[in-house]
């Protein structure tokens, strides 16, 4: 299989939405992996998701109303509850006893934790596949606290290219070349990587002087960081100083074959960082936008379906990503446990 052969991983949790974007009693229509999904939050605060297509005549349910409990289709008023069960067909008269369960709309498993809503995307057409034993990624050390800052940005590419950009250690000096980010000469980097659940982890290490000095400022001691990645496109970077912890979650979700969404959530324990939030937001957006613009240009070349030449060691993480993806899909198809293809290894590159 050619590496850049596009396919979506199924039967896996994807990041759907930052919690604060979905208020009680509201609904939001989204597209994930090319499927129309309606996310709703009941008045009591529980989130649910159903396919955004009325099983009667196909109109999006999001064109109708949500009363905080049930969704009502705008065409003939059929109603659906949080499990997608059809509860009312208004045109039925007495004696027309039909089993409303035959008219349910497909529903999706959703989970809400640490200020994020996750959705389990089963095989298409399989209503609510039961979630595999894969857990939802957890930001360590923050309990159920929501992030202090969230940014969502659309990238005009297939998910793989956004993911590769996310873990690419060699692009920073070229793509993120700005005065406030690690300027200067290329230098050698050597990092130890280990397999971790459904992915790999860059072992905890001290931050280089240029980045580390900024962290020293916020917490003293020697700042240390650990970065983990797991399919389908989740990266968690956890940095600790003597007093504080700063963690970011980046989770990429495909919208379609040509678009994906990069969700970036920032968690920190630094009390005064709240004041700097507008500035942090500005930097985060600028940073993400640099990655977005480069994949936008990449699309010009990818239209010709080139074979991609991934090299050692700077592209080994990209190779692992493709291996992890293929292994996950195969393990499901063959109905056997997932076997992580990543082996502990030192990687060495210049950046
Ligand atoms: S199309 Fe939805 S109720 Fe008829
Ligand atoms: Fe980047």
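Q: What amino acid sequence fits the structure above?
A:
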């Amino acid at each position: 299989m050619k590496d850049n052969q596009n396919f979506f991983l199924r039967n896996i949790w994807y990041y759907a939405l930052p919690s604060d974007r979905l208020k009680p009693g509201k609904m939001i229509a989204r597209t994930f992996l090319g499927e129309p999904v309606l996310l709703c939050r009941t008045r009591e605060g529980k989130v649910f998701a159903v396919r955004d297509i009325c099983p009667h005549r196909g109109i999006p349910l999001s064109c109708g109303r949500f009363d905080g409990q049930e969704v009502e289709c705008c065409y003939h008023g059929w109603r659906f509850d949080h499990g997608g069960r059809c509860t009312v067909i208004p045109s039925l008269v007495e004696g027309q006893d039909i089993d409303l369960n035959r008219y349910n709309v497909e529903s999706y498993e959703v989970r809400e934790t640490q200020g994020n809503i996750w959705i389990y995307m089963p095989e298409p057409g399989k209503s609510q596949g039961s979630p595999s034993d894969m857990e939802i990624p957890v930001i360590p050390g923050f309990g159920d606290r929501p992030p202090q800052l969230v940014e969502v940005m659309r990238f005009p590419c297939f998910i793989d290219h956004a993911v590769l950009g996310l873990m690419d250690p060699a692009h920073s000096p070229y793509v993120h070349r700005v005065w406030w980010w690690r300027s200067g000469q290329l230098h050698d980097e050597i990092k130890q990587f280990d397999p971790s659940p459904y992915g790999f982890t860059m072992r905890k290490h001290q931050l280089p002087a240029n980045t580390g000095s900024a962290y020293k400022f916020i917490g003293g001691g020697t700042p240390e960081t650990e970065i983990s990645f797991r399919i389908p496109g989740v990266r968690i970077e956890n940095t600790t100083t003597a007093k504080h912890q700063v963690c970011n979650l980046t989770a990429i979700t495909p919208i379609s074959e040509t678009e994906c969404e990069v969700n970036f959530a920032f968690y920190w324990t630094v009390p005064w960082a709240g004041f700097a939030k507008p500035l942090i937001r500005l930097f985060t957006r600028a940073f993400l936008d640099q990655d977005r613009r480069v994949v936008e240009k990449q699309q010009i070349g990818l239209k010709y379906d080139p074979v991609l030449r991934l090299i050692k060691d700077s592209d080994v993480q990209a190779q692992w990503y493709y291996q992890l993806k293929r292994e996950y899909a195969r393990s499901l198809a063959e109905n056997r446990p997932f076997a992580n293809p990543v082996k502990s290894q030192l990687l060495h590159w210049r950046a």
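Q: And what stands out in the fold?
A: The helical segments are 159-167, 172-175, 209-219, 277-302, 316-333.
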